[in-house]
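re the bet — no i am not wrong, look at it urself. input seq straight from the record:
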Amino acid sequence: YYFSSFQIRANHALGIIQNSLNDKKNFIRAWELNERHYGGLTGLNKIEMGVKLGEERVHQFRRSWDLRPDPLDKKSQFHPLNIKTYKDIPKEKIPDTESLKDTYERVISYFFSEIKNKINIGNIFISAHGNSIRALCKYLFKLDEKQISKLEIPTGNPLLIDINENQ
């Protein structure tokens, strides 16, 4: 089984991997595997965020467990409510901003409802993002809030996790 977020870069990465494996199976796209929603910081790169808020505050937002940036204006072109891809997602489920804790709850809920029961059937491949993968690692490796804030997920490097039926 192949899973990916709704975000283009994860879909493209998964396509590249499937091509190299010569495996053209359809993959399941799930918004629940999306990157953390950075609210009002959406659309800014790290340098722009640093100028706007200061480096220390940006670091707090990026690594804290339960701190959320200000919400993204619902009228913003970057808000999922205004992006066609999200038209079938119930509006009340689409966040305006998220903490890592919020991302964790979204990802782990999806993991239990859609992925975990497929682990014993065959291999699972998830193409997602730093914070959604960090959230999954928090659960799988039983990390606390301090440990997860220090966990680095390198971009573009596969992470192989062998899960047995006791996990």
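see?? The beta strands are 2-4, 28-29, 125-127. told u. also The longest strand covers residues 2-4. so pay up
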